[in-house]
Write a structure and sequence with these properties.
The protein has about 1000 residues and is mainly β. It is built from 5 helices and 60 strands.
C-alpha cells in the first residue's frame, strides 16, 4: 500500500435500478434498460442534462457585492415583518428580493491590493476567539471588509427605516436564527485583533442559544464577519419578532436563506430553481458495470505549484478532490457532498474532474454521485455511481473505488453543536439581576450582568452618559444574555470620569418581562469596582391571546426541520414584583486608570440597458465667498427657509435640514453617459423612506459625542494630519454609532463595464474653522489607508469597483465645514464625465450644530446643471425637509459651488504647516491624558479599526468587541492663535477665525 495514500475498501453491493432516498426500489431491474430520456420524462425533467447543476441554480445569486440579508421590512397591511434580501445581483442597482428565492454564495476571494485571502480566517490564540474553535483552525469566511473588490461577498443584515418601533414594547425588535441546517457551524461577529481583550464582538450563532438573536435598530445595517467551520450548503431559517405594546407577539413567517459555502457559483436566474435534482439524474442513468468503470474518488492536500508566484494566499489550506475513470473519453456530472450536504457539481471531462476546496480543520465525510452524459456517444453506456463515504482529515490522503460497489445515498449529518431556538413565551421565575464592574488590571474593565433566572433572554445596552445628555452615550454597551449572563469588556478610558454609567437590560420579545435601567455609577471613576442591583419590570400590558395578523408569505418554502412554534405558551404565571433597586457601591481599585406599506416590489429580471450617449457637464468655477458675522443664539421665532437673518428655523441651518444621526451615503449614478451625485438618506429623520436627496439640502450635525483623542494605537505616520498622539479631535467612526451620522460613499448602481478605470469621488474643503484639519481613512490588519487629507491636498478617492463603503471622518476643530463634492469618471470611449458639484455642509460640535446660520454664506451658481436621479425619489433643495418629487418630474434645486477665500491666502505650504504645528501643540497638551486610542472594530470582522471606542460584549465565556464610543476630553482647552488660510492642492480653504479661551 502506498504510504502516502490510505484506501477505503468496501464490499460490493447491488444497486436498484431506481433509487429513492430513504425508500425501497420502485422499479424492477429491467427498468435500467430504459433510455435515459424515457426515465427523465417519467421524472418530469428535460432530457438534456447540464454539465453542472446545483440545487440553487436558477435562484437569484447574491455574491461579490454588498448584501443585506435578511433585511426586515414592515408590511403595514398585515401588521407584521417581511424578510428580504437587498443586493445587486444583476449589476443594475441594488434592489430587494424575496429571501427564499435567493442564495448567498461564499466562494474564494482575494484582495486586489495585496492578494491576501478574503475567504479564510485562521484563528489566533486570543481567548476571545475560543467560541470559534482552536488556535490555528481555519474557517471559511465572508469578511466584514474587502479590499479592492467585494470578493467573495460583503454580507450583513439590517432593518428598514419604516419599522414602527413606537408600537413595540420598549421599542425592541430582533432577528432570530431559528435553525441552521448544514455541514458545520455558523457565526457572525466583528473582530479587531489589535484590541484584545476587547477584540471580538459576537452577534449571531448557530450553536449558542443566547446568540441566536440580534437586536435591530430601524434604518441600520451591519458589516460583519460570517464564518463556517465546513464548506457546503447551509439553509438558515430566520424570523424577525417584536412584542406589541398591548402584549401580542408580532413575527414574520419563518423564512429560509441558503448560504452556499464553497463550491462552484450557482447559475443566476430569476429565483426559480432550474436544476434537475441529483436523484432524478441518477435514476435516469444506466447501471452499467462498475467493475470495468474503475472509478476512483480521492482527497489529498493541495499540491502547490513549484513556482511560488503561481500560488495564491491560503492555497496551503486547500485540499484536492479528484475523480478519475478508466474511460478517458467519459463525460458527465459529479455531485460532491460534505457530511451529506451538497457541496458542488463538477463537469467530468475526458474521464476526470478535480476541485480544490478549503475543507476546514475539522474532519468530515465526503461522498460523490456520478451520472454519465448519455447524450455523448462515449458515455451513453457508462455506469452511474454512488461512492462510499470518503473520510476527510486535514493533511491526509484517502481514496474510495467503484469496484467496491455503490455506497448508500448521502445522508445529512448535522453538526451536533447547532441548536434550535424555541419560540415559546417565557415568564422569568425571578426578575432580579446583579451588576458588577470589575477592573481587569490591564487598562480594561468588564461589566457583568447576572440574572437569578438563567433562562432570561435579552440584550445588554446602556453606556457612559454625559450629565447633560441622557440619550446618547459616549460608549455603547452591547451584548446578549446567554445562560442568564451578559458581559461587556471595554477600554477604561480616563475621559469617562464624571459620566453616569447606566446599564439597560432589554428583554427578548418572547420574554414576559419588560426592560429596566440601573444606574451603576452616578459619577464614574475609571479603575473602580462597582456593584449594583436591578430588576426587570413586569409587563405593563397583559399578554394577549388575540390571534396575530396573517403574515405575508413572499414565497412558499419548505418548513424548517424543526418547526418553531409561533403560538404563545400556556398562560404565564404572575410575574414577581420588582425588587427595589439598591444603591450602587463603589470599591476603589488599586489598578490605575488609563487615560404606507413598505414591502418592496420584487423586480423583474433586467434586460440590457441602452447605450449612453451624452457626457455629464463639468462643474463650473467656484465663486468666491466672504465671511459673515457670527449668528446669535437660536431664536424661537421661525423664519423663511433659506432666508438670511437672525431668526432660526427648528431643525435647520440656513434652510438646510439637519441630519444628526443615521446611515448616509454619497451616492453616484450613471445614466445616459451622465454622472450624478446625491445623498442617499437612510436616517429616517426627514422621511421614513430611504431617499436620495441633494447634498445641498442638508447639513450633517456632529455632536460632542464625537470627541476623540489620537492615542498610541493610531500612531501610524499616515495619520499625522490628526496632529501628534494626544491631540483631540471630532471623529465619525467607520462603524455605526448611535447619535452620530454614519456617512459613506456608494457606487453600487454604476456599471463599471461602461467605464475605463475608476470612479473618482472629489471632496474639496472650501470652508473650515481656523487652523482646522480634515481627513478620512480606513484601517485594516495592514494599517491605515488615508483616503482624504487636507494637509497634503489629497481630495480625491479612486473607487475601482461598484461598492458601498464607510470610513473614519476626522475634523480637528469644532465649527462649520463646507466641501465641494462631485464624482468623475472616464467612459469606455475615453470621454471624461463629471457630475455637477454639490456642497456638503457639516456642523461640528454643539455650538455649530445649534447655530441659526453659517458664519460664511456660500452662494450657489444659478446656472449649475442639475443631477438626474431618474427612477429614484429626490427632495427639492429649495424646500429642505419637504416632500420630493419623483425624478423626471420637476427637477430639484440646482447644485451650487462654493467659493474660495480671496483674502488672507497663505499661498505656501509652510503657512499651513505653522497652523498645524500650533494646533497640534495645543491639542497634545489638552489631550495627552486621553490614554490609549479608543479605536473599536471597523464594521466588524477581520482587520479594521475605526474611531469607535473599543469594547467587548460576551455572555458566559464569550467576548465581543464594540464599535462606537466617545472620547470626552477637555477639548475646550485647545486654543487657536494662528490665522491664515490653508492652501490645498485642489483649491483654497476659507478659514473661519474663532479664538477660544483656555478654560
Amino acid at each position: 500500500m502506498n504510504s502516502q495514500k490510505q484506501t477505503q475498501r468496501r464490499v460490493t453491493t447491488h444497486t436498484p435500478a431506481l433509487f429513492i432516498p430513504g425508500g425501497k426500489p420502485a422499479l424492477r431491474r429491467a427498468a435500467a434498460f430504459l433510455s435515459a430520456a424515457a426515465l427523465l420524462a417519467l421524472a418530469g425533467a428535460a432530457p438534456s442534462l447540464p454539465a453542472a447543476a446545483g440545487p440553487d441554480d436558477g435562484k437569484i445569486v447574491t455574491t461579490k457585492g454588498h448584501v443585506d440579508a435578511p433585511k426586515a421590512y414592515w408590511d403595514e397591511q398585515n401588521g407584521t415583518f417581511v424578510l428580504m434580501n437587498e443586493a445587486n445581483p444583476y449589476k443594475t442597482g441594488a434592489d430587494t428580493y424575496e429571501l427564499d428565492k435567493t442564495v448567498n454564495w461564499v466562494g474564494k476571494g482575494y484582495s486586489t491590493r495585496d492578494g491576501k485571502s478574503q475567504y479564510t480566517m485562521t484563528l489566533g490564540d486570543s481567548p476571545s476567539l475560543a467560541f470559534l474553535g482552536e488556535p490555528g483552525q481555519t474557517l471559511y469566511m465572508a469578511p466584514h471588509l474587502t479590499y479592492g473588490n467585494q470578493d467573495p461577498i460583503w454580507a450583513g443584515l439590517g432593518a428598514s427605516t419604516k419599522v414602527p418601533t413606537e408600537r413595540f414594547r420598549d421599542g425592541v425588535f430582533a432577528t432570530d436564527i431559528l435553525s441552521v441546517e448544514g455541514p458545520g457551524r455558523m457565526e457572525l461577529f466583528r473582530y479587531n485583533p489589535d484590541d484584545a481583550p476587547a477584540d471580538v464582538y459576537r452577534m449571531l450563532s448557530s450553536s449558542s442559544t443566547g446568540w441566536h438573536s440580534w437586536l435591530l435598530d430601524k434604518g441600520s445595517h451591519t458589516h460583519n464577519t460570517t464564518t463556517f467551520t465546513r464548506p457546503g450548503r447551509y439553509v438558515v431559517t430566520y424570523r424577525t419578532v417584536a412584542r406589541s405594546t398591548d402584549g401580542r407577539i408580532i413575527s414574520s413567517k419563518p423564512s429560509k436563506l441558503v448560504w452556499q459555502v464553497g463550491g462552484m457559483q450557482p447559475v443566476l436566474g430569476d429565483g426559480t430553481p432550474t436544476a434537475v435534482p441529483t436523484v432524478d439524474r441518477y435514476n435516469a442513468a444506466p447501471v452499467g458495470d462498475l467493475d470495468t468503470a474503475k472509478y476512483a474518488l480521492s482527497v489529498a492536500p493541495h499540491r502547490l505549484d513549484a513556482d511560488p508566484a503561481k500560488n495564491k494566499d491560503a492555497d496551503d489550506k486547500l485540499s484536492d478532490i479528484t475523480f478519475t475513470a478508466a474511460n478517458k473519453n467519459l463525460k458527465g456530472t459529479l455531485t460532491l457532498y460534505n457530511n451529506g450536504y451538497f457541496l458542488t457539481d463538477l463537469p467530468v471531462v475526458n474521464g476526470t474532474a478535480t476541485w480544490s476546496e478549503m475543507l476546514g480543520s475539522e474532519g468530515s465525510q465526503l461522498q460523490a454521485v456520478f451520472t454519465p452524459d448519455t447524450s455523448d456517444a462515449n458515455s451513453a453506456e457508462a455506469s452511474r455511481w454512488i461512492s462510499h463515504k470518503l473520510t476527510y482529515e486535514p493533511g491526509r490522503a484517502e481514496s474510495v473505488y467503484s469496484d467496491d460497489g455503490n455506497g448508500t445515498w448521502p445522508e445529512e449529518i448535522p453538526d451536533e453543536a447547532n441548536t434550535v431556538l424555541s419560540t415559546e413565551q417565557y415568564t422569568p421565575t425571578s426578575m432580579d439581576y446583579d451588576v458588577t464592574v470589575t477592573p481587569n488590571g490591564n487598562g480594561f474593565s468588564t461589566v457583568e450582568v447576572r440574572f437569578k433566572d438563567p433562562k432570561v433572554r435579552g440584550f445588554l445596552r446602556g453606556g457612559f452618559y454625559a450629565q447633560d445628555d441622557p440619550v446618547y452615550p459616549y460608549l455603547d454597551l452591547e451584548g446578549s444574555i446567554e445562560d442568564g449572563v451578559a458581559r461587556f469588556t471595554f477600554r477604561d478610558e480616563s475621559f469617562y470620569k464624571g459620566t453616569a454609567l447606566r446599564v439597560k437590560m432589554l428583554t427578548h420579545p418572547d420574554m414576559n418581562a419588560s426592560a429596566s435601567t440601573t444606574e451603576v455609577a452616578a459619577n464614574y471613576e475609571p479603575g473602580t469596582k462597582y456593584t449594583a442591583h436591578g430588576a426587570l419590570a413586569p409587563d405593563s400590558a397583559p399578554i394577549s391571546d388575540a390571534p396575530k395578523p396573517a403574515p405575508v408569505d413572499p414565497s412558499p418554502s419548505a418548513e424548517p426541520t424543526v418547526a418553531p412554534s409561533a403560538e404563545p405558551s400556556a398562560e404565564p404565571s404572575e410575574a414577581p414584583s420588582e425588587a427595589p433597586s439598591e444603591a450602587p457601591t463603589a470599591e476603589p481599585s488599586t489598578v490605575p486608570s488609563v487615560s404606507p406599506s413598505e414591502v418592496p416590489t420584487v423586480p423583474a429580471v433586467p434586460t440590457a440597458s441602452a447605450e449612453p450617449s451624452v457626457p455629464a457637464p463639468v462643474p463650473s468655477t467656484p465663486a468666491p465667498t466672504t465671511p459673515a458675522p457670527t449668528s446669535p443664539a437660536p431664536s424661537a421665532q421661525p423664519s423663511t427657509p433659506g432666508t438670511p437673518g437672525n431668526q432660526c428655523v427648528p431643525g435647520q441651518i440656513d434652510g438646510r435640514t439637519k441630519i444628526s444621526h443615521g446611515h448616509l451615503d454619497i451616492q453616484a449614478t450613471l445614466k445616459d453617459r451622465q454622472l450624478s451625485v446625491g445623498l442617499r438618506d437612510d436616517s429616517g429623520i426627514i422621511d421614513a423612506d430611504s431617499t436620495v436627496r441633494p447634498l445641498d439640502s442638508v447639513v450633517w450635525t456632529v455632536s460632542e459625542n464625537a470627541r476623540r483623542v489620537r492615542t498610541e494605537r493610531m500612531a501610524d505616520e499616515k495619520l499625522n494630519f490628526m496632529g501628534p498622539v494626544g491631540t483631540a479631535f471630532y471623529g465619525l467612526p467607520q462603524t455605526q454609532q448611535s447619535g452620530l451620522p454614519w456617512p459613506g460613499y456608494n457606487t453600487q448602481d454604476i456599471d463599471y463595464s461602461q467605464l475605463r478605470g475608476p470612479v473618482r469621488l472629489h471632496v474639496v474643503p472650501k470652508v473650515m474653522p481656523e487652523g482646522a484639519r480634515f481627513g478620512m481613512f480606513t484601517e485594516s490588519l495592514n494599517g491605515a489607508d488615508v483616503l482624504l487629507d487636507s494637509t497634503t491636498g489629497k481630495t480625491t478617492i479612486d473607487i475601482d469597483y461598484a461598492t458601498h463603503a464607510h470610513a473614519n471622518w476626522v475634523f480637528s476643530e469644532p465649527g462649520q465645514y463646507m466641501f465641494d463634492v462631485h464624482y468623475s469618471a472616464t467612459l469606455a470611449d475615453g470621454t471624461e464625465v463629471n457630475s455637477p458639484v454639490q456642497q456638503l455642509a457639516v456642523a461640528v460640535g454643539k455650538k455649530a450644530s445649534d447655530a441659526c446660520s453659517f458664519e460664511t454664506a456660500v452662494p450657489k451658481d444659478p446656472n449649475a446643471a442639475k443631477d438626474d436621479f431618474s427612477g429614484v425619489r429626490r427632495v427639492d433643495s429649495a424646500t429642505p425637509g419637504g416632500a420630493g418629487g419623483n425624478a423626471g418630474s420637476g427637477q430639484a434645486g440646482q447644485s451650487g459651488q462654493s467659493g474660495a477665500a480671496q483674502s488672507g491666502q497663505a499661498g505656501a505650504s509652510g503657512a499651513a504647516g505653522d497652523v498645524n504645528a500650533q494646533g497640534s501643540s495645543d491639542g497634545s497638551a489638552d489631550g495627552s491624558a486621553g490614554g490609549v486610542y479608543p479605536g473599536g472594530v471597523s464594521g466588524g470582522g477581520t482587520g479594521g479599526g475605526s474611531l469607535g471606542q473599543s469594547g467587548v460584549s460576551a455572555s458566559s465565556g464569550g467576548a465581543s468587541s464594540q464599535q462606537g464610543g466617545l472620547a470626552r476630553t477637555g477639548f475646550g482647552a485647545v486654543s487657536v492663535a494662528v490665522g491664515g488660510a490653508l492652501v490645498l492642492g485642489a483649491g483654497t480653504v476659507m478659514v473661519l477665525r474663532s479664538r477660544r479661551r483656555a478654560s
